[in-house]
Write a structure and sequence with these properties.
Layout: H1 5-23, H2 28-44, H3 51-54, E1 71-76, E2 82-87, E3 93-97, H4 102-115
Antiparallel strand pairs: 1-2, 2-3
The structure holds zinc ion.
The site of zinc ion (ZN) has 8 residues, from loops.
Length: 119
């Protein structure tokens, strides 16, 4: 057996999060308990959750954040451009700053001008 505790923990976390994704639609409460377990294991062995899941989990209630389903995602260009992810279960908001290149900044500004209602 060459597996370390951390490697085993990583695998279990992966499986738990995959299962959470699968049952989320039919049983959000069960998905939350899977996510909760995954976070507990991660904490116990002091590893981070996989980065692809990190932004998909509500830190407050462990809901799997699926845009349009369990979360609302909005881009806010004010000051520093950032994304606001709102958990529709507990209402918790997470801000994710966007580090944009200048080109992309311009594109967001142009979009805003287009989105303004014509008078
Ligand atoms: Zn939440």
């Amino acid at each position: 057996m060459n597996y370390t505790a951390k490697q085993i923990a990583k695998k279990r976390i992966q499986i738990l999060l995959q299962q959470a994704t699968q049952v989320h639609k039919t049983n959000p409460a069960l998905a939350r308990s899977y996510v909760w377990s995954a976070r507990k294991i991660a904490m116990a062995v002091r590893i981070r959750l996989p980065s692809e899941y990190k932004r998909q989990i509500c830190k407050k209630c462990n809901t799997l954040l699926v845009p349009g389903e369990s979360s609302r995602v909005r881009v806010r260009p004010q000051r520093e451009p950032h994304v606001v992810v709102t958990c529709l279960h507990c209402g918790n908001q997470t801000r994710i700053p966007l580090k944009l290149k200048n080109k992309e900044k311009v594109r967001i500004e142009q979009n805003n001008i287009q989105n303004e209602a014509p008078r």
